[in-house]
Amino acid sequence: MKWAIVLCAMVALSECLVRVPLIKGKTARESLEEKGLWEEYRKRYPYNPTDKFGYAVGDEQMTNDADLAYFGVISIGTPPQSFKVIFDTGSSNLWVPSVYCSSAACNNHQKFSPSLSSTYKNAGKPLRIRYGTGSMTGFLAYDTVEVGGIQVPKQIFGLSQTEAPFMSHMKADGILGLAFPRLAASGAQPVFNNMVKQGLVQDYFSVYLSRITSKYIFLIFGGVDNSHYTGAITWVPLSAETYWQITVDSITVNGNVIACHGGCQAIVDTGTSLIIGPTSDISSINSAVGATMNNGDAVVNCKDISSMPDITINIHGHAFTLPASTYVRSGYSCRTGFSHGRSNLWILGDVFLREYYSIYNMADNSVGLAKSV
User: Fold this and answer.
1) 43: exposed, middle or buried (C-beta count within 10 Å: 0-12, 13-18, 19+)?
2) Which residues, in sequence order, are CB contacts of 112 under 8 Å at separation 6+?
3) How many whole angstroms from its chain centre is CA 96?
4) Which of the two residues, 273 and 318, has the higher pLDDT score?
5) Percent of the chain with pLDDT strictly greater than 90
6) Active site residues
7) pTM for the model
8) CA–CA separation, 102 vs 104, rounded Å?
9) CA–CA distance from 42 to each of 9, 36, 38, 278 (Å)?
10) Over residues 270-280, mean pLDDT
11) Cα separation of 308 and 329, whole Å?
12) Spatial CA neighbour of 27 closest among 76, 81, 78, 64
């Protein structure tokens, strides 16, 4: 992986910074819209983002987020086999398609072949990850996983044998989860925790998602790049040590509370594209910015973006403001990045994370947020 950058202090391997470039690719929605298939697709596979967080420990769910755009490249095995994965702070397992999978979603993605790796070992355990519109089934195995030029030997990972149909439209082959170990299906040790345990990196990582250019989008294991944020870092304690879950104080427009009255729980999630909230609160936000509903999308006039109000998410006594240029997405139409789920839980996805550099600290059980530059 020639593009990987590894920054290591000479004094100790544990001070190593592993920078993984992320790629902003075409989303499933964009691909389907180009083919005129989006309306058919969205009706067949409705999007329920909070399904991902509504399961018991060890029974992980995912949902068909058609707007996910960011992925990175890792390799598995000896010699290495490369895969595009979503680095997902909202889940804990690593899995990729296998040569034993015949689902349509596997046929147009890279598949891992155990017979081609000299370091492969079958773990002898089944794996099942439920989706909002289907499921992924497979089994667990061990092999060397390379992330950002760092090799993690004997890493447990999943190999899919069946996958939900909507995955066939996504650019990424699989998912690398970055949430806490207790959430991992079948008790699999997450890659990041294994890296820390083996002394390869320190026990925190950071993510920078630029909305201006895809040239400087990255994830850093064991480090922070202070050239990509401005001002002080706001450290927010976790309210639960499973996901990267925090307490939001309120959501305001022009100083008036319009959502999250009295506080609410939110998950900071790189594996969700939008900002998700309860139906009534999301309706209030979309109404405040002048959006109207059209086939499930909160649509706005593209000419009005410059005059639309800021949305402020108040967290731990600090204001995190999103201008309309951040929360409006353009494509075949202009629509807001606010969507509803089926619970009281909020998800701060890529719409929020493109504006704020995020740091995930397992040592202090906190999330750091700073204004991106």
Assistant:
1) exposed
2) 76, 77, 81, 83, 96, 97, 98, 99, 159
3) 16
4) 318
5) 62
6) 88, 269
7) 0.89
8) 6
9) 48, 12, 6, 20
10) 92
11) 13
12) 64
